[in-house]
């Protein structure tokens, strides 16, 4: 009987140790991940512990590719945005980088031409172009072009195409840029773009 009880205690101890091990591994890995992530929305204690583990001067998240947010992007239209049909309807250039695939940038023209500025020089490895309905509707976007520049003077074509025939076009290319330019043309319709999603990491402050 005593032996059985001893066995039970042993099993219980082992079980507790295993649970404890899983909890600590999970907690540590979760905290380590926070070193790489933007901690802006984390709680006070989480930030403190994360800082303690990751170090005060460590900014490791800068070396990881991630989706660039509106805080490091700006957008402007190179073609006139109609007061009545673009500005008043909230379809200005900033809707291109507002993080929503449902909001649309459209100047009320058969051409769109947007320049996206980045706060740093970035290494970029992917760009998702969310066309919205214009990407699938025939006679809307007949052609498009994506260009990149480091100095704003010299531009290189990253990719281009005709009628997208899809809501979203992914451009999987590695390049360096501090500015992007997306333009499109239609023979018949006013066109626009819903969102440009950029995956990159800064290589210079
Ligand atoms: Ca948008």
Written description of the protein model:
It is built from 3 helices and 8 strands. By secondary structure, it is of the alpha+beta class. It folds into 2 domains: 2-63; 66-204, Galactose-binding domain-like (Jelly Rolls). Strands 1, 2, 3, 4, 5, 6, 7 and 8 form an 8-stranded antiparallel β-sheet that branches. The radius of gyration is 25 Å and the shape is elongated. Residues 95, 98, 100, 103, 194-195 line the site of calcium ion.
CATH topology of the largest domain: Jelly Rolls
Which small-molecule species are bound to the chains here? calcium ion
Averaging pLDDT over every residue, what do you get?
A: 88
Question: What's the Cα radius of gyration?
Answer: 25 Å
Helix-strand string: HHEEHEEEEEE
How is the biggest beta sheet arranged?
8 strands, antiparallel
From the structure above, extract its key features.
binds calcium ion, alpha+beta, 25% helix, eight-stranded antiparallel β-sheet, 3 helices, elongated, 2 domains, 8 strands, Jelly Rolls, 205 residues
Which helices and strands occur, and which strands form pairs?
Blueprint: H1 2-36, H2 44-54, E1 66-67, E2 73-77, H3 83-87, E3 111-130, E4 143-149, E5 155-161, E6 168-171, E7 175-185, E8 195-204
Helix pairs in contact: 1-2
Bound molecules: calcium ion (CA).
Calcium ion (CA) binds at residues 95, 98, 100, 103, 194-195.
């Amino acid at each position: 009987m005593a032996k059985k009880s001893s066995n039970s205690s042993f099993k219980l101890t082992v079980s507790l140790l295993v649970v404890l091990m899983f909890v600590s591994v999970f907690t540590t890995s979760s905290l380590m991940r926070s070193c790489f992530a933007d901690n802006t929305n984390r709680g006070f204690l989480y930030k403190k512990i994360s800082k303690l583990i990751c170090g005060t001067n460590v900014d490791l998240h800068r070396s990881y590719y991630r989706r660039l947010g509106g805080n490091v992007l700006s957008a402007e239209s190179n073609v006139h945005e109609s007061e009545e049909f673009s500005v008043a309807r909230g379809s200005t250039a900033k809707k291109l980088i507002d993080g929503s695939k449902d909001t649309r940038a459209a100047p009320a023209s058969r051409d769109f031409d947007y320049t996206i500025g980045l706060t740093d020089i970035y290494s970029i490895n992917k760009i998702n172009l969310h066309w919205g309905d214009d990407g699938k509707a025939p006679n809307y976007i007949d052609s498009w072009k994506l260009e990149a520049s480091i100095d704003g003077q010299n531009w290189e074509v990253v990719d281009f195409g005709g009628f997208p025939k899809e809501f979203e076009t992914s451009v999987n290319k590695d390049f360096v840029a501090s500015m992007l330019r997306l333009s499109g043309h239609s023979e018949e319709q006013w066109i626009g773009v819903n969102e440009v999603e950029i995956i990159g990491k800064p290589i210079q402050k």
